[in-house]
Each structure stands twice: as C-alpha cells, then as structure tokens.
Design brief:
The protein is mainly α. Helix content is about 80%, strand content about 0%.
C-alpha cells in the first residue's frame, strides 16, 4: 500500500527526530555537540540547494502518490554513503562533483515537464545523494557520530519537506504558470551550481 506523500515525509521526520533525541540523551556532552554539527552541516549552500531541489522535483515530476520517493531515495543513499565517508572513502574532485549535482538538479527541474522515467530520475537522485553523503561522512566529528548522523538526517528531511511544500504552493497559486516557475527555478539552480563550481 502506498503512503500518501505527506504521511511518508512526516513519518521519516518523526523517526529521525526520535532517533536524534535518543542519541543525544545517551552521551550528553559529545552527542549534543555531534547533533548540532549534524544539524548545521547540510546548510552549506551546495547541500541546501540540492536538497530543496529534490523536494521540488519530486512534486513536479513524480506521480502525486509517489512524491515521497524522491526524498526517501535521497535519504537512504545519503545514509549509506555517509557510512562509507566515515571510513575514509572519497572520490576525486568530490567538492566539484557536489557543485555539479546542483547543476544537475537545476536541469532536472528545467526539464521536469518531459517526465524522465522514474527509475532514471531516482537513480540520478541516489547518485547525487551519494556525493553529499560522502562529504557528510568525511566531515563527521570524532565523537557523537550517531547524533551527528541523526542531525544531518533531520535537517535533510526538513529541507526536502520545504522543497515539497514550495512546489505544492507554486502549483496551487500559479496554476497554469507552474511549469514556467519551476523551469525558472531550474535555471537559477543550475546557474548557482555553476557559480559554486567556478569558486572551487
């Protein structure tokens, strides 16, 4: 049975919050520090733009009963790759690739009307999430690791939800011009990613 998108996103957020609270209470000092680091790490501009874009794209390009699939795919790939990042796994040109993932998401928004096959779109989301997760893992603190992970999961979930909410608001208030608005967001996002790339 498919969960309605809002229910699925709410359940992921509640689970992340519960786990974060549990982890923070287990070792108060180090875990609290790790939690706050995790909460703030996804707020770097490249991470933030990418995660918002996943929410917007999921509304624009996926069937309405599968909107949650984009954010859930991103979160699962993010967690798996963060675990690899903690062990020291990195990629050449990783920061540049993260910036290019923002360009990719912008292009996905720009061409959202063409409706990529769902498997292709989710595969691109998983690939981009892997880049972001490796960076999260590589920058993990030496202590409070579980709380750090729960922190970045929680922030990532919140950013996805904001993207979903923004796209639904565009759909509600702009109606016939929603594709133009989402395409414009895509152009802006791609330009931002290209600028971030040029600064590295």
């Amino acid at each position: 049975m498919n969960l309605p998108p809002r229910s699925a996103m709410r359940n992921v957020a509640i689970a992340a919050l519960t786990l974060a609270a549990s982890a923070a209470q287990a070792h108060t000092g180090h875990a609290n520090s790790g939690l706050f680091e995790g909460l703030s790490h996804p707020l770097g501009l490249d991470h933030l733009l990418a995660m918002l874009a996943v929410g917007v794209w999921s509304v624009a390009a996926l069937p309405s009963d599968k909107t949650a699939w984009g954010p859930i795919t991103f979160l699962l790939a993010l967690l798996a790759s963060a675990a690899l990042g903690v062990t020291g796994v990195t990629l050449p040109w990783q920061e540049q690739l993260i910036s290019l993932s923002v360009v990719l998401f912008g292009l996905m928004l720009l061409f959202a009307k063409q409706r990529l096959p769902m498997a292709v779109g989710l595969g691109l989301i998983a690939a981009a999430a892997t880049l972001h997760g490796l960076a999260h893992g590589a920058e993990a603190p030496p202590t409070g690791l579980a709380a750090y992970a729960m922190g970045f999961i929680l922030t990532t979930t919140a950013l996805h939800f904001c993207g979903v909410a923004a796209a639904q608001a565009l759909r509600r208030f702009l109606a016939s011009r929603v594709q133009w608005a989402i395409g414009s967001l895509g152009l802006l996002l791609s330009g931002s990613g290209a600028y971030l790339f040029s600064q590295l």
